[in-house]
Amino acid sequence: MSCCYLSSTGDLKDVPASAGPPHHPTTTFAECPELDYLVVPGPDPTGQLSEECIKFVQERFPTLKGLLTICTGSVAMAQTGILDGVQAASNKWALGMLAKAGLLNRKVKWVGDKRFVKDGKVWTGAGVTAGIDLAAEFARVHFSKEVVEFVQDISEYVPNPAQPDPFARLLEGVKLD
């Protein structure tokens, strides 16, 4: 298995993260090899994707085995149109803020009462820790029981189910559709 960190520029300069250390890209959108999975972490929910990024996602999505988003990664991917009609989770605080500001992409079927959602080959996690639960569920579906139990034991983590989501309360009174 190999991983790529993507950038839109050929100089492969470090990309600042919205939190934490910068990321060092290993390839560009134009030079990226074939991918099985695309994992999208959560950027600033009001940020705009570059045209190059949108085009890359739109072209690559049909051949992916899966798309996994964490936190506001689903809000970013909604800009590409690939989530139109798809049930998706995202950070509830961000969903509420975007909905109240009239900036929420209403073509997506936003789910406000689950920690993670799987719709076809799209896996979306609500918030940062929900992303851990999403990864645990993805592993449960794709890997052997022994591997999953080993990883849970060495990380000392017990996954939460998709529901109930204790953070669903953050969207009480907020219209997502």
From TrEMBL:
Transmembrane segments: none annotated. InterPro entries: Class_I_gatase-like, DJ-1/PfpI, INH-QAR. Pfam families: DJ-1_PfpI. Residues 24-139 form the DJ-1/PfpI domain. PANTHER family: ARAC-FAMILY TRANSCRIPTIONAL REGULATOR, DJ-1_PFPI DOMAIN-CONTAINING PROTEIN. This is DJ-1/PfpI domain-containing protein. It comes from Candolleomyces eurysporus.
